[in-house]
Every structure is written in C-alpha cells, then in structure tokens.
Amino acid sequence: MWADLQPVGRSAASGGYRRFAWTREDHDLREWVAAEATRRGLDLTEDRMGNQWAWWGDPDQAVRDGDKGVVTGSHLDSVPDGGAFDGPLGVVSAFAAVDALQGNGFAPRRPIGIVNFVDEEGARFGVACAGSRVITGAMTARRARGLTDADGTSMADALAAAGRDPHQIGRDDETVGRIGAFVELHVEQGRGLIDLGQPVAVGTDIWPHGRWRLDFPGEANHAGTTRLEDRQDAMLGFAGAVLAAREAAINHGCVATVGKVAVVPGGVNAVPSAVTGWLDARGAKPRAVRRAVADVQGMVEQAGGHVTEESWTPSTPFDPSLSARIATRLGGIPALGTGAGHDAGILANAGVPTAMLFVRNPTGISHSPAEHAETSDCLEGVAALTAVLEDLAGETG
Ligand SMILES: [Zn+2]
Hints:
4-stranded antiparallel β-sheet; alpha/beta; 9-stranded mixed β-sheet; binds zinc ion
C-alpha cells in the first residue's frame, strides 16, 4: 500500500507531497481507497461532503439494533510540500489492521469502518478539517462553497470540476450517527515519543490554540531621503512583536509563531506605512497561552499597534474512558497531548467518543518532506490499532 501511494503528488524537486482537495492527485487517491475497500469486501459509501467510508459489516443495521460502528482512518491530502506520513499512515494502518483481523478469522460484533476524510489540511481553501467540519455542522455548506483557493477558484467550482454537485454538500447526521467510536492513528508531530523511548502513545487532547492579528500603523515615505528620526516605520514595531512572541512563549511554557506578514506598500525602497502580522499561539495550558498573548499585546500597544483575536479554540479532550480503555488494552502505553488539529478533534467536539494513537516520529519533524516514521514503529502502530479494533468491535461468539 505504501508503494502504491508513494508517487502520487510527489514533487521530484523537493521530495514533498502536494495532494490538495478536489485535484487530479486527490482523485487518484480516492480511487485507490475505493480499490482497497473492494479488495477486502468492504462496502464503500460517501457522505454528503465526499468523505469516503469503507464498512466491514452494515452500520445501518447496527443503528437499527441500537448499536453503532467502530471507525478508524485519517486523511490522504497534504500541506504544500508535506511529508508522506501525515494522514496516509492512519489510512494505510486502518486497512492493514482490517487485514490482520480478517486473516485471524475475526468476526466483528459491531461493524468496523475506515474513513478517508477530504481536505483535512485545508491547504487549498484555507480551512482545516473541511470534510469533518461540514458533515458535523461545524462549518456551513454555504461557507464551504464560498471558500476560494489561491487562483480564486471557489470550493463550489472545484467540486463541480471534480464532477460533484456543490449543492449536495452539507451536514450529514446519518453518517455521523453511525460512529460509535472513532480512533485515528497518526504520525506524531513532535518529539514526545522520542523522549519517552516508546513507539506508540494514546492521545489525551488537542491543545487550546488561537490566532491573533497584529496591526501596526506607519507612514509611507522614501527609503533614501527620509531621515531616520523623521520616520514612522511600521516594520519596527512588528519586528519587536515577533521577538516578544518568542520571549513570551519561553516565559510561559507554550509555543508562539508569526508565520504570515503583509507589508504596505511592500516596496523595497519605501518605509512601510502599515504592517499586519498573524500570531499563532498554542500550549497544553490555556492560561499559559493567554498570558503569553497578553505579553505580546502589551508590547504591540506600546509600539502604537493593535491586537485583534481572530479565533480561539479551547482544549479539545478526547474521550477519557475510551482513551483509558485503549491504554489499558495496549499494556499501559504513554499518553500525549498534541498542538496539531485533527478530524478526531472535530468529531470529539461533535460529541463522538474519540481517541487517537500516535506513532513515533524519529525527528519530530512534520509538514515537511523530512517527516518520517520507522517501518518497525509503523508496524507497532498497526498492531496497536488491530488490538484496539478487536477490543472495541468485539467478536461474535
Ligand atoms: Zn494529519
């Protein structure tokens, strides 16, 4: 399976992946999922957003019987120049776990589903987890249709170009109602498991995180003829804020990043009249993040700038009893929180009992061609997921 996926959307220059929603590459990956489902005798369905679900057993019969399915899986799309593991490891491990169960003659009492969520990274249209957000109602179909990519193509037009009816997309309670438990396996996007010397961990929560816009006013002027003391250079305040964010993150034990900046007028030979930067801050403790941002805000205001909160997402805990059951079943594996968002977090917020398994990443690097996981650790992940599915789906007697 890994060899099948390896060439799809891979840049020869960087070795990274460009697998964006509703493109040719995305289409090829979806065809691959369909073929893998068919190969195993699974029933492939699509929900209103085009997320793919491959079912072993009949989830609707389970619902009629007052039960629900056990779902695993992840996503196959990538960030620009992404790594091979973020997303695909969860989908491939899901199929491999089903192979192991089928090979052992396991007969699930509850149906088992494998999901491939569309557009998890939001690389094309700017909103992460679009596939799970739309079906759970966390994002309206109207807003999703109106999102545009860098070329100005709307999601509605991209869906239509992929042969889909953009007016069919929307909240899908029937699909979400089939999920009794969701367990997403994912490559770790940090160094937690390296420090612990363990191959697999169970997730505890997605850290609280937010985005803030930092606006600095200035006065446009000539970069050659304006004396330094006569300038109102918006860039200086901004530069101070970038350094202040780093300092605040160190002081309060969280992380802070300024990864995007817009400069007006944006000429090499012009003193900036306005600079807008965006601050991303996250951490295990919401109070620590809030304090760090307050420090940055103080510095920004001192420099005559202004801070606007654009989003704040509180901590998203995974289901404690499901996570505890998984940790126990796997012999007391460690528990880790994460600063990265996942479809599992969207489902958890929608009330679905949700858990995650993380597989060790030997460098901790993610969203980069250097992202990696050793094969032996990936196989440990598959074995863990197999044991979890066996436990959660039970066996008919
Ligand atoms: Zn991912």
